[in-house]
Write a structure and sequence with these properties.
197 residues
């Protein structure tokens, strides 16, 4: 903030907002601050790693609709520049998968499907074992939203079993909590006959 007051550049202001959003949970971004970031990201013609990191740091501040639109904008305006660096690709894929989880928790099957397809296109090789597991989990949530609850729940269980097999208890706990959050956010799934089987 001191640097921004000195320079008055939008770049320094964005850096301040990025740090504030990521590290200061007691003082969340205001509506105006979120709008400033949203406008910047939506209008930028070519996303670089800077925009990826800015979006990653502030993603939880936006509504699910805004996250979906910004993620599509990121794919449209960042694919070419991001493909040149593996770390950038990993961040790119992280954002798509995080956005997809937000869509699942919001019960937005159409948007979730779009993001699952984008993630599948972004996984180029076998190095992405974790991301493939996350994609399998999200595909299970999508099946549940489409009414195929038994099949979807089976995919979710398989993903959690993979993490158990890999002796990754933190991931087991995390994905079990995602599953519970998904069920809480989408109570019709729990009430379906398939869920009770």
């Amino acid at each position: 903030m001191w640097e921004y007051r000195r320079t008055k550049t939008s770049h320094d202001y964005l850096n301040y907002l990025k740090i504030k959003s990521h590290y200061d949970q007691a003082d969340p971004l205001t509506i105006e601050e979120r709008q400033f970031i949203y406008d910047y990201l939506f209008k930028i013609e070519t996303w670089t790693h800077y925009e990826l990191r800015l979006f990653m740091a502030t993603l939880d501040s936006f509504s699910s609709d805004q996250v979906f639109l910004l993620t599509k904008q990121m794919v449209k305006n960042g694919s070419e520049t991001i493909d040149v660096n593996w770390n950038h690709q990993a961040d790119f894929l992280y954002i798509i998968l995080k956005a997809a989880l937000m869509m699942a928790l919001a019960g937005k099957e159409k948007e979730l499907s779009t993001l699952i397809e984008l993630a599948q296109q972004s996984i180029h090789n076998q190095q992405y074992l974790y991301e493939k597991s996350e994609l399998h989990f999200l595909s299970g949530l999508r099946l549940c939203l489409r009414g195929a609850v038994s099949e979807g729940r089976q995919m979710v269980r398989k993903t959690i079993q993979v993490f158990k097999t890999l002796d990754a208890p933190d991931l087991v706990t995390l994905y079990e909590s995602y599953w519970q959050s998904f069920l809480t956010a989408n109570p019709a799934i729990v009430k379906s006959n398939e869920f009770k089987e």
